[in-house]
Each structure stands twice: as C-alpha cells, then as structure tokens.
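just leaving the lab so this will be short. what follows is a protein written twice so to speak, once as letters and once as structure tokens for the fold. can you read through it and tell me how you think this chain folds. thanks a lot i owe you, the record is right below.

___
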Amino acid sequence: MMTKRILFRCDGGSIPELGTGHLVRCFILAKELLKNVHTEIAFLMGDNPESIRKAEKQGFKVYVIKHEQEEDFLTIKTIIDFKPDIFVRDRLNSSAELMNLIKHTGIILITIDDLGEGAEFADITINPILHNGKALYEGYQYLVLPGVPDTEWDRKGDVQNPKVFVFFGGYDYLNITQKFLTSIPQDNDVIEYHIVVGDLYENIDLLRKMSCNNGNINIYQSPEDFSTIFKNCDLAVISGGLTLFQAVSYGIPSMVISQYKHQLDNAEKLQNYGATQSLGLFKLVDFSNLVQKIKALIVDEDKRKKMSNKGRYLIDGLGSREVSSIIGIIDRLKWDSDFFCKNIAYLYPKRLRESIIRFAYKKCQEEDIECLYYLCNCHDPESVRIAEEYGFHFVDIRLTYEMSINQDSYVPNLTQIDDLQIRESCPKDIHELSRIAQTSYVYSRYYFDRHFPTEHCQRFYRDWIVKSTKGEFDDIVFVSLIHDQVAGFISCQKMTPNIGKIGLVGISQDFQGQGLGQHLVQKAIEWFRKENLPFVEVVTQGRNLNAQKLYQSCGFTSKRTELWYHKWFTKKYID
C-alpha cells in the first residue's frame, strides 16, 4: 500500500443551497480511502459545530475556517501545515483566485460537483450530480451513495398497507417537512408515513406534537438505521439532494419536491428517464392534493415497477469505489505482486494529465514499482498521447458488453445439444475446470505481455476458477456436462444489488463449436434474474473474436471500449 495524505474541503448545511450531502459524500469517500492503511486523511471545514463534531467522531483531524473571508489564507495555511499529496474540494462554486493558489502549492487538486471558475485549475474534475459537459468524469456512474442495501428485498410494494418515506434533506431550511405534515388528513388510516429530519432541524418537538394523534405517522431525527427505514418503504417523497439518487439506486419510486434550481434540473432529468416523478419547486407545489397523488402512484403497480427498474439501471452502485479509486490515483496491488512475484501497481484515473502521471511516477519510485497497469479511456486523445509518450506499452483492448435482465430475457435460437446438463459446480469438478481454464485465455493481456511467464498466466486462471467455486473471486460457477463429461463452465458475480457480472466462460476444446457457450450464458441469465439483478455486464478482449460473437448472439450490446497499457520500469524515473 502506498503512503498518501489527503485533505478534504467540504461543509454541511447551515445556509440555503448547502445541504448535508457534501459532508456525507466526503465521509463515505474518506472511509473507502482508509481501507488503504497507509492513507492519512484530514478535513478543512467551516465553523459549523455539528459538522465538526461528526468529522471528529469518525476520527478525522479537522481544521476550521472561522470566517468566510479567511478562506483563502486558511486553506493555504492548512496545506502547509498538513502537507497533503491530494486536495479534494467538494463545494459548489470555487473561485479562480483560490484554486490558482492551491495549484501553485504543487499538490494534486480534485473538485467534485464544482461549476465555479476555479474548476479549470483542477487536475481532476468529477461531476456526479451537476453536469455541464466540462468535467473529466461526469455522470451518475460517479455517484457516491450511503447505505447500499442487500439484494433480498422486493420492490413490489404493499398496496393494502403502503409505507411512504419522507425526507427533505439534513437541512430543511424551507421547513417543507411541516408543510407536508399538515397535508396529511386527520383520518389517515391507510398509508404509514416514515418522516425523517436531520440534526439541524429545529422544529422536531412541533412535528411530534402535530402527529401524536395519528398512529400511522412515525417521526425520526437522524436515525442510525436511516437506510433500513428507507429501503423498507414502498414510495418516497423527498427533495432533490443525495437522497433522491439513493432512492433511484434502491429502486424506490419517488416523488420529488425540489428546494433549489439544480435539484429541479436533476429531478426533471431523472423523470425524463422514467426513474422518478418531479412535482416541481417547493413554492409551486400544491400540497392540497399531494396525498391524492401519492395514493395514485401507490395503486399504479406497473408505473412503480417501471420507475424502479429504470432507476436501478441508471445507478449501478459502484460510484463510491470508482470515485475513491480516482482520488487515490495509484496504489500497489498486493495480490498481483505476490502472485507474479513482481512489484505491481495500478493507475486508476482513466483520463490522464501530465500532473497525474508525474505524481504516479513519483509514487512508483518511492515504492520501487516494477510494473504499472493503466486502463485508458480510448475516447480521450490526451490520455492516449500521455501514456505512449511516457513509455506505456499497449497490451489489450478491453470490451465491456451489457444486457438488461427481465422476465423476457433469454438467449435466442439455442442449439439442441443431446444429453446436456448444467448444474452448480461441486468439488469433484475442480480438476477438469482447472484443465479447461489453463488453456482458455491465451488472448488476455497477461499472455500478450511477455514479462509474465506462461505458467504463471495459466495458474492465474486456474486459481480464479477454483476460488470462484468456493465463492471467493466470483459468487457461483455453473458446469455443463455432456454425456456426464465436464464440457465447460461459467462464473457469475453480484457486484452490487443493481449489477451482475459474468466472470469466466470456458469451453473444453473437445466440445467447442456446438453452441455450448450460449447454453451457459442462458443459465447465467436465469441466475441473475433469480437474484433480482436488473442488468449484467461481461468483459472480453479485442483479440477474442469468438467471445465477442458469443455475447452478441446472446443479446448483449456494447457498453465501453478501453485500452490496457503496461509500463515496465528499469529503475529510471522522471526527474
């Protein structure tokens, strides 16, 4: 693990336009980054006692900006004192003057959802929510969400005794919660409401007094089991902050009352996708018929199901892992290093800039790295140019295919194969699975890069399939038998509650060309459907034409094309 110091600049809401979502997001990222035990993290925050308390409670060192006019001076002073390698700024509108000052300290500068003039000085810009077409990383795939649920719960909804989750952000400065509560009729005896407010909400006693005579209204203030309460509801009435995206990811149909213009933009964009229902800005919402709208959506099971599926497809739940990797920039890969007996690291940002590659080379020198993996966004010419200019060698084209999973998903035109059985693997299969695996992946980047001995490459895939039969690498392996002889296999993995992945597909040379691969993919589709996963991905190599034809014939479509590079060092690094 590489040693890194990271400083986060963020605040939690005490003024309009600034909710608690920025703080929550940074805490999630910090925890993910701390899985690398050699990472040290600190926070630079405004003088908000509750936000400071939360950060310190989680064990983070906190630097405080007492007055807004001291922002520039105290930011630079904190950088000098803490000496971070990386500065992450999660605030809406940065100034060019401040960001230029930070840039001149020589550290890596990263912004999140920053539409200000200062964002142009950042080395890495990430815009999960606020899209302007200028960020290096933009889109819902970079959403950082709390409390990812398991895959066991169902989103059918309870029409007879529906549960509605209500939350208007950790800082409900417009007091939408009270307005909503007054819209619930006194004789409500059908809908069970779960109304949540944050630590900063000041009228909690009044809410409890207003609801004390209605047993179907539950009031919570910053409950520890927030995500559990949320995911067990059939519908949500929320504002357009982080919770909106959490609802979409969970597959919970939601009605959105936006507090700010940028929230309205996101709510309407998600409504256009069919993933939510926007009610407009708070001041324009007619609360007199809001409960009627809630009831109408509850009884419309078909609409709720479509909203749920659309939402889970849009937000796969991998954002926290993806963004924390980008922020961390580079890390040593312990498993690869131990397996190949070489010191190997991974360069995570798929879009390179000169400052990023220089930082990565510096860390490689510190750790005496022999090989650096880099997966490049092939649509970014600057990244390709930098990789090649700095001596990276092209080793593979990585093709990602995807398929939506529903009740109608199946592989068309399956070829009839006599005496074919497909079942879950068992220990007696391991010898044959290993034999097939060690000769099936000669198109991979490890074989193409001659620095890795062939016997190591063979063992790599043998170990992969053997571990997968035990639920270690992948979750399950299905084995095909023809005349009781092991003929092939397929491994499957639940990556998140919203996305599955096919890991390895291998066919014995004695049984190739019979359409067996399609039968194995069909078995995988059936398993993903049983696990309630709305879509599945599979990755193959640009050289592997047979695999590409297989997935295309099964109904998969192209999702991404990326380039694999390896950089081998000869103890000569950048000055």
Q: What stands out?
A: Residues 4-138 form a domain with the Rossmann fold fold (CATH 3.40.50.11190). The longest strand covers residues 393-404. The chain has four domains: 4-138, 163-314, 329-391, 400-563.
